[in-house]
Structures are given as structure tokens and as C-alpha cells.
Amino acid sequence: MSPFFAAILFHGLCLSHAIDFTTVYEWDRFDFVWPSGADTSIEQINQKFIPDVEFRFMAVFGERLFLSLRMNDRIPATLVWLPTSGTSTAPKLAPFPSRHLHKQDNCDSIQRAEGMETDTDGWLWVLDNGSSKCPSKIWIFDLLSNNDTTIKRVHQFPDAVVSHAIGARRLCDIVLDKTQDDFLAYITDAESEQIVVYSRQMDKSWSVKTSGKWVSLALSPDREARQLYLRRYGSNELFSVSVSELKNEGAISAAVVKLVGIWTATPYRMLIDSANVLYAAFHNRNYLSKWNTAEPFREQRFHEVGDLGAHWPFTFALDANGILWMTERNETEGETETRHKLLKTEFGVRSYLFGPTASTSTFSFYAIAILLFVCCSVLSGPVITWLILRMRRKETPLMQISLDNRAEMSVSVDSAVYDDVGPENSNTAPPEEARPENPDEPLYADLDPEPLTSADCDYVIVRNPSPEPYEVPLRLGNTNAGKTTNEK
Ligand SMILES: *[C@@H]1O[C@H](CO)[C@@H](O)[C@H](O)[C@H]1NC(C)=O
Ligand SMILES: *[C@@H]1O[C@H](CO)[C@@H](O)[C@H](O)[C@H]1NC(C)=O
Ligand SMILES: *[C@@H]1O[C@H](CO)[C@@H](O)[C@H](O)[C@H]1NC(C)=O
């Protein structure tokens, strides 16, 4: 074993404990739990059925995982569930709550499920964009009831809040704000410059004007100064708005959004844990990034895999026990050969809905993590530097070594590059030629928005590019000054 390899392995051992996913299920192709009995519409779908299923959003409660699927007329449901364990083979997708609520263009059915969330009372909130015939809705199911037929709420958005017109709305994602005596939902609508708010207590919705159209969103756990983070439509820009600006129905002035930072790619899924760390998954990227929202914006990669070739490569959710559940979509062999995995990892922190982290176990988890990180940085940095200097003198063909050991090194070396938290660590990253993985790739991908391909919350970008290119100087603070808002 070469000393170089030994050092890299040592560094890798220290860092890779941060993320270690277990595969729960693997699917080569999907099947659904098809209802029995006479149902001609289901037979028609069954004949057209193509097992190409694309997961959108995920929520988890107890022993069940809920997934929204990119809707098309060849699949029998847009919302399905799976058991989190207990089956040896990859399970079939079961329409949730039942096939009866998935009749196309029947407005008493779910038409197109998008963002989802489970609240701490065991209620599942599903955002339904509707269809060309049916307006959009929020569906709330009680997961603790004996069977899933208990629908707690079906709220159809009034035309004044979310347009009933075709092409005038594009509901994407939802987060929940647990207040003293209510649950509020904040919802993005990528077709209009507003944030939609829904109160569970009042069963009422309203919209708050903003300057900008928003796609993905995440809510901070901090109760006093709760921030809603928003990814701007057609861009990599991340903004924030104080939720206090959203709670008042009928506010005349637009809510003030602030630019927080710019991601390396376009995130379609963001989630904040109870310790204020925001996680993001990006279109056409095989990595996940994070940012500690208590600090100035700084994107760090925390998980990276090989080529996936997928537009929506991952979707994830955190459960009440601190387990992160994630799906991975591998489309490299083309759509018909698409493979999926369900992965999980012990995270030790729960979602933003469980409030700011106060538990000692989480604290010690972090203390240990920091200690380990410091130990790794301090010990392995100089070792690597020393070895590199030594090897340069010996003129060892580095490329050969790196190819031999690529499998072992890819994760750890990348983590070292992206995970350099402390300023003291910035000098310890190996020099350019010592990075074994794709040395000609830039450290971060360029900021061009993705050429989006599939029909989702973002796809209009292709036809209707963002009016503001990145070269425009970024405005901080009151970005609405002098702008008229776009009401529909
Ligand atoms: C669900 O429960 C209700 C009452 O608890 C019952 O009337 C209904 O038949 C049940 N439905 C199913 C599908 O089991
Ligand atoms: C949501 O529904 C509207 C109206 O039918 C439609 O124009 C839009 O494309 C839909 N958005 C998504 C993401 O499906
Ligand atoms: C995706 O599938 C391709 C082809 O089977 C494979 O070579 C590649 O390693 C897979 N990617 C991941 C991240 O597993």
C-alpha cells in the first residue's frame, strides 16, 4: 500500500462517517398494486402502463413512505405509499389513499400531487396542482385513523388565491409552520409573484405578493425569527423572507425578500433540519449540498454518487426518529432501463417541524462530529501535504495510483474538497494535480440554469427564459422597490 493511498484512506475514514446510506429497496421496474374488480378506466391505464415512474416529493410517517409521482395517463395514481420495511423484495406502489381518489379529470380526485409534508399530529398534507379541468387543492389525510379514508380537509383554492385558469398556476412545494394554535402552510406558485398561505384552523387560504416567482422552498425551525427560504424560478438564487410578513391576510405591500446566496445548480428540493442545516437536491446533478443557515451562505457537498443522468435524481424526507430517507434515480441506460433505490441513513436530527434542536443527544452528536472533524483536519492535512511533496520529488505517476484506488477515494477526497469548514483547513486541501477525481472539471459547476426537459415546476424556462440574467447586479434588501407586482 502506497503511503499516498494510506493517507487518503485515513482522511476518508474520518470524513465518510458523516454520510453512510443503507439500501432498503432496489427497483429495476415498478409495478403498482392494481385494484381488483370491474373498473374499465383502470384497465385502459393498465394496457397503456409503462413502468417509468418519476418520484417528485416524499413524506414519511411511522412505517410508511409517501411519494408523489410525475403524473401522466399511463400510471394509475399520482400519490403512492410504500412500507419502510418488512418486505424482502422491492414493494409495489400502492395508490394512496386508494385508487378511488385517482380518477383523471374527476375533480373529487387528486389530479397531480406535488409537494407533501406530514405534520406532528400525523396528518399528511398533499399539494394538488389540479388539471386542465380541476382547480388546485390541498388534501389533508389523518394517518392515525383506522384506515386512510379519513380525509380531514379538502381545500380548493379560490380563483383569487390560485388561478383556476389553464397555464396560470404551477403549484410546486409546501412547508408547514406550527404556530401556537394552528398549522400554516406556505406554498410556491411558479406562475405568479406570490406566496400562498393556508391556515388549517380557519380552513382558509390567501396570497402574499412578492417580487419574484418561486419554485422550491424550506422553512427554518427557529420559532422567533422563522425564515422561509425560496429558490427563485428559473435561477439558482436563494432568497429568504420572514414568515411574519406572510401571516397577515390582506397585507397591502409586498413581502420583502432578501437574496441569501447562489447555489451551484438549480435546486428542486430543499429541507431544513431541526439544527438549522438546509439540504438541497438539484436538477441534473449527482450530488446533494448543505448549508448551515446560522452562518453566511456557503454551499458544501455532503453526498455525491457516480453518474445518474436524471433530471430529478433524488428526493428525500426526514422522519421523526432522525432517519433520512432518500430515493435515487439512475437513468444512464435510458428511460426504460431506469433503476431506482430507496436509501436511508441515521441522521440524528429531525426535520424543522420538531423545533430548534435542544436535545442533548443531538448536541453530543454534533460535538463528536466537530471533534472528529478537527482531528481529521489537523492530522491528515499535513500528512497529505507532506506526502504530496514527497511524491512530487519521486515523480510517481499519480494518475495510475488514483485510477487504481478510485473506488475507495472518490467519496473521501471530494468531501475533503467541499467540506473544508474551518478557515484553518483551507490550506490543507490537496493541490490540483493530487485530486484524483476528474481533474479537468471545475470545482463547482457553472451557474447557467439547466436546459430543462421534463414537464415540472421548472419546465417553462425553456420557452420563457428568466428576464434577469445573472450578470444583473444583485439587489439586496427591498427588492420590490419600484416594481409592480404581477397579479393573476
Ligand atoms: C374505514 O373505516 C370506516 C370507519 O372506521 C369504515 O366505515 C370504512 O368501511 C373503512 N373503510 C375501509 C376501506 O376499510
Ligand atoms: C398545474 O396546472 C396548470 C393548469 O392546468 C398547468 O398549466 C400547469 O402546467 C400545471 N403545473 C404542473 C407542474 O403540472
Ligand atoms: C447508474 O447505472 C450505470 C449503468 O448501469 C452504472 O454504470 C452507474 O454506476 C450507475 N450509477 C450509480 C450512481 O450507481
UniProtKB/TrEMBL annotation:
GO terms for cellular component: extracellular region. Residues 1-18 form the signal peptide. Residues 418-452, 464-488 are annotated as: Disordered. The keyword Cell wall biogenesis/degradation does not apply. The chain crosses the membrane at residues 363-389. Keywords: Membrane, Secreted, Signal, Transmembrane, Transmembrane helix. Residues 477-488 have a biased composition (Polar residues). It is found in: Secreted. It comes from the Eukaryota. Gene3D superfamilies: TolB, C-terminal domain. Its main location: secreted. Belongs to the major royal jelly protein family. This is Bee-milk protein. The lineage of its organism: Eukaryota, Metazoa, Ecdysozoa, Arthropoda, Hexapoda.
